[in-house]
Structures are given as structure tokens and as C-alpha cells.
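Field log, afternoon session.

UNIT: design team B
ACTIVITY: writing a sequence onto a fixed backbone
BACKBONE:
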């Protein structure tokens, strides 16, 4: 184990907080999966779901370890080609998306032969953020022309969002918000950002009008997310009110110290108790202290992301850390906000804590790239330190040679000078 830890490179703080979140997730998932166990097996045995979650986390940490060994600039080279692959996967998802039991949404595709379901929007988000970071780092030294940036940056961004929007509005909004944040940090002109935001609002309004006029043309979840927004803003009763109501009961029941691990009552009533609403179960079982503890871990992870971005020497490295790290924390905040009804139901999971396969693995892939950035900075710092040591050793060698030459010219040996320089001069 000690040797394995020594082989972990990169920011140790990120490694630590990620490990703490993953370890903490075992108990809530084990407890909150009882609803799925009753529906799927009829006996309420959640051990199988815990083992499955442990396997997902184990595979996720393997992904982090493997990816953090890859130099992060390699991803810059493949991001443009990967975006085309993502478009094909997203189009296939819209047409052939799989409906998962208990999560009434066609946002997944099933990987052939192994039977694993995969949410393509998570991969699309990661590839798109790297693509945007690549563009911003490439145009750093030259003034940005809006017309050229429309074709090189915003057209690929909007094509990606267009593929995701019909099935998943919350993810589309999250990705668009993070892209705007990324271009702002990358010093994209503010007046151009304003034009892009305005264009996005107009496009969304036009899309909603088309969806309402031709409902059969969008067989996915357009009606679902439109009705969720309508119900949230107008306080009309809807099917999501049941989940929100149970989540608020769970949070209120937890009080300060919680009911205790495994003692949640509302986990038996919440349909997505182990994924979308797992934060409510955490507060019910571990109280306000447990909920604030989880929030603190995410904020500490955000703090480490900020430090890693600040330390990165290249602009691409800075933007990659921001583009892949900040959405992770923002997603966690959205999940918590939904549980307390600050936002409408979105379907966003709690990163590294909620059960799930592809969401955990994509999060771990992003973390691997971030740690790869911090590893590179450590390697550069170590090279500079080694170079300083070599320069110091070389300077000592030069000083010794100069002393020897002076000793020979003065008629005494370097050994005499080292023991008693004044006596050597008197002897001379």
C-alpha cells in the first residue's frame, strides 16, 4: 500500500478529498438502495448494490491512476477529433437511447456485449471543455476575431448542445454555463460573450416554440423538462412534487445529528434515493452536520482546483483544470439545491457519491486529467530544483579548481591552505 501511495503523483490534496468522498459514499448508497432492491428483487437486500458501487468506484480510481500518467497536452491534440465522435454518439443516443428502469429518460446507450449503459452527455461535456480550452490557448497571442471564433468555437459548441438539449435540458444549461465561465476566464471579449448569451436565449426560445408546436417531432424528454420548469415557477402540482416532498421530509427528519446510518425512512419512498436525491438521505441519516461535512469536502476540492489552476504554467493547463474541475463542484451544488427545492428537478447526480457507472467513470476520467496537470507542474518544479542543485555542485567544483590554481601559483598545496592558509604563506 505504501508503494502504491508513493506511485501517486500530482496534487495530494485532490487525491485525498476524492478518496474521502468515495469512501463516504459506501454507507449512503448501501442504505439508500433499499427502494431499488425492493423493486428489482422484492427482498430489500442492498448488499448487491453496495458491491456494484464498490466495483464502480474501484474502476473509477483505476481510471484516475491510468489517466494521470498520460501527459495532459495529449488530450489537447485529440480534442477536435474526439468532438466528431461525440456528435455521432449523441445522435445515436437521441435515436436509440435506452430507458433505464426508475429513471424515465432516454439519455443512455447500451454498450454492446458487456451490457453497460453509458450516458453520452457526460463524455460530450468533458470533450467540449477540453476543446474550448484548446481554442482559447491557441488564440492567446493574437486578437480574437468574432467572425472566425463563431465558426471555430461557437458552432461546435452549439452543435453539441443541440444534440443534448432535447433529452436533457439541465445538462445543456450546465455545460453552456461552464463554457461561458471558461471563455470569460480565458479573456474572451465581454461584448462577444454578451452576443453569445443573447443568441443562446433566442435559440432556446425558438426551440421551445418548435417543440410545443410539433410535439411528435421530439419524442424524448422535451415535454418533461418544460413541464418541470413550468411547475417550479408557477407552483402547480406535478409528478416531481412527490420526490421533492419526500426529500424535504427526509432533510427535516435529520435535524442536527441525524437518525443514524441506515435508519432513513424516506429512502423507501424516494424513487431516486441512491442517485438524484441521495443528499436528502445523507442529511436524514447524518443530520445537518453530515450534510455540511459533504458540502465542506466539495468546497475543499474546489479550493484545490483553484490552487492547481493557479500553479499551472501553461494557459491550456489552467483552463483544463477550471473546465473539468469547476463543473464537478457546480453539479454537486445543483444536486443539493434540488433536494431543498431551490431548483427544479434536474436529474444531476452527486459526483463520486451517487450510485452509477458511467457518471462515476467520467468524473474520474476528468479528475485524472486534472491530476495529470498538477503532476506536470510537480515534474517541472523538481527539474528546476535538480538543475539548481547541479548548478550549485558545478559552482563548488569551479571554486575548488580556482583554489587549486591559486595554491600552485602561490607555492603551497590546497591541503596546506585548507589546514592553515597563513602558515602556508609564511613558509613560502
Amino acid at each position: 500500500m505504501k508503494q502504491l501511495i508513493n506511485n501517486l503523483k500530482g496534487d495530494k490534496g485532490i487525491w485525498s478529498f476524492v478518496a474521502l468522498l468515495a469512501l463516504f459514499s459506501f454507507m449512503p448508497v448501501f442504505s439508500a438502495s433499499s427502494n431499488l432492491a425492493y423493486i428489482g428483487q422484492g427482498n430489500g437486500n442492498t448488499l448487491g448494490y453496495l458491491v456494484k458501487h464498490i466495483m464502480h468506484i474501484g474502476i473509477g480510481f483505476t481510471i484516475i491512476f491510468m489517466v494521470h500518467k498520460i501527459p495532459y497536452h495529449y488530450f489537447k491534440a485529440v480534442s477536435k477529433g474526439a468532438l466528431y465522435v461525440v456528435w455521432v454518439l449523441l445522435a445515436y443516443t437521441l435515436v436509440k437511447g435506452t430507458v433505464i428502469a426508475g429513471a424515465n429518460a432516454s439519455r443512455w446507450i447500451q454498450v454492446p456485449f458487456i451490457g453497460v449503459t453509458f450516458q453520452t452527455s457526460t463524455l460530450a461535456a468533458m470533450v467540449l471543455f477540453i476543446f474550448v480550452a484548446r481554442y482559447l490557448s491557441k488564440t492567446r497571442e493574437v486578437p480574437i476575431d468574432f467572425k472566425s471564433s463563431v465558426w471555430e468555437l461557437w458552432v461546435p459548441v452549439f452543435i453539441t448542445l443541440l444534440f443534448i438539449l432535447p433529452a436533457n435540458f439541465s445538462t445543456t444549461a450546465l455545460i453552456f454555463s461552464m463554457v461561458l465561465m471558461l471563455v470569460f476566464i480565458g479573456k474572451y471579449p465581454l461584448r462577444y460573450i454578451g452576443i453569445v448569451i443573447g443568441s443562446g436565449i433566442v435559440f432556446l426560445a425558438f426551440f421551445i416554440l418548435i417543440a410545443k408546436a410539433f410535439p411528435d417531432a421530439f419524442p424524448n424528454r422535451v415535454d418533461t423538462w418544460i413541464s418541470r420548469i413550468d411547475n417550479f415557477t408557477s407552483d402547480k402540482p406535478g409528478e416531481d412534487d412527490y420526490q421533492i416532498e419526500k426529500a424535504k421530509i427526509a432533510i427535516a427528519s435529520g435535524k442536527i445529528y441525524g437518525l443514524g446510518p441506515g435508519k432513513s425512512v424516506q429512502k423507501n419512498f424516494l424513487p431516486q434515493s441512491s442517485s438524484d436525491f441521495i443528499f436528502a438521505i445523507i442529511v436524514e441519516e447524518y443530520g445537518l452536520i453530515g450534510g455540511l461535512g459533504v458540502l465542506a469536502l466539495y468546497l475543499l476540492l474546489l479550493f484545490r482546483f483553484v490552487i492547481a489552476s493557479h500553479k499551472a504554467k501553461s494557459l491550456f493547463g489552467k483552463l483544463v483544470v477550471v473546465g473539468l474541475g469547476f463543473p464537478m463542484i457546480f453539479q454537486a451544488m445543483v444536486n443539493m439545491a434540488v433536494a431543498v427545492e431551490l431548483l427544479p428537478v434536474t436529474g444531476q447526480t452527486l459526483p463520486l457519491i451517487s450510485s452509477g457507472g458511467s457518471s462515476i467513470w467520467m468524473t474520474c476520467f476528468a479528475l485524472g486529467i486534472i491530476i495529470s496537470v498538477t503532476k506536470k507542474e510537480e515534474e517541472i518544479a523538481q527539474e528546476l530544483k535538480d538543475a539548481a542543485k547541479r548548478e550549485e555542485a558545478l559552482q563548488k567544483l569551479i571554486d575548488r579548481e580556482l583554489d587549486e590554481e591559486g595554491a600552485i601559483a602561490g607555492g603551497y598545496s590546497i591541503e596546506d591552505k585548507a589546514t592553515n592558509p597563513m602558515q602556508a604563506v609564511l613558509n613560502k
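LOG NOTE: Residues 411 and 428 are 7 Å apart (CA to CA).
NEXT ACTIVITY: expression trials, pending approval
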